[in-house]
Amino acid sequence: MQKGPKIAIAVTAVMVLMVGVRVGLIYRANHEAGPVRKNPYADVPVDPDDNVFLRKKYPDSLADQRSLIGQTVWVSAGGQLAYYADRGNHVDYAKPVGNLLGATPLLIKGVFEKKAPASGPAVFRIPAGERQVLLAFTLPASSDPKTLYATPVGDFQNGSYNFVNDDVFFYDDPHKLYSFWGPAMWSAIDKHQAVLGMSENQAMMSLGEVTTPDSNNLGNRTVLFDNNGHPIRIVFVNDKAVTITPLPTAGQTAAPSSK
Question: Is the pLDDT of residue 6 over 60?
Fold first, then answer.
C-alpha cells in the first residue's frame, strides 16, 4: 500500500477513536450519579391533622341547604352555634337550648327562614341580615334522638344568601377523619373533657373554638377555653397539654389543676 493512503487511514482511525472517546465521556457524564442533594423539607415535621381532607360544598342557595335533608353532619366549630327548640319551623331566639359542641352529629330534617334579633347568641357567629336561614335537626347520639332543634347557618342580605356550613360542619365523621387520634383521646373528646397530652386541635374539638390564646405561637402557648361558660386554661408545650386548670365561674372557687 502506498504511503499516502496509509496516512489517510491512520488519520481517520485516530479521528474515529477521538469521537468514540468523546461520545463515551458525554454518555458517562449524563448517566453517572451526581452528588445527592438533600431535600430541605425532608426533616420538617408534618402534622397528620394537616393531611386530613375536609370536604366542602360551597352552598349559595336554599336548594343547596335542602340537599342536606336526610344527611348527617358533624359540628366542627364547637361552642359557636347556638341552637333552639324547633316548634314547627319556629324558634324562640330568647331561649337557646345551648351551644352545639364539637364532633356532635346532627341529622338534618329541614330548612326554614326567620327574622333574627340584632343581638344575642343567634348572631354570635351568624349575622342577622334581613333574615336568617336555619337548619332543623335531631341529635341521634343524645338521650332524646327525636326532639327537633334548629340552628342558624346563614343569612339573607341585599338580595343574596351567605352560608357558613363549610366552616362549622364536617360532612364526614370526624371520628374516622381523625381516627389516628386513637380511641382513648376520642373518648375524652366525646365527653368534652380536657386531658393531658392532647393537642390544641384536639382540645378545640373537645372544649370548643371560643378561645383566648396568649400568643400566636401555635402549640407552645397558654390558651383559655370558654368551654360553654366553664373556662379552662391549658398550657401547651410542643403541641401537648402539660397543665390543665379549670377556672371558677361566678360564685365558684378554682378547681385544682392537672399536671
Answer: no
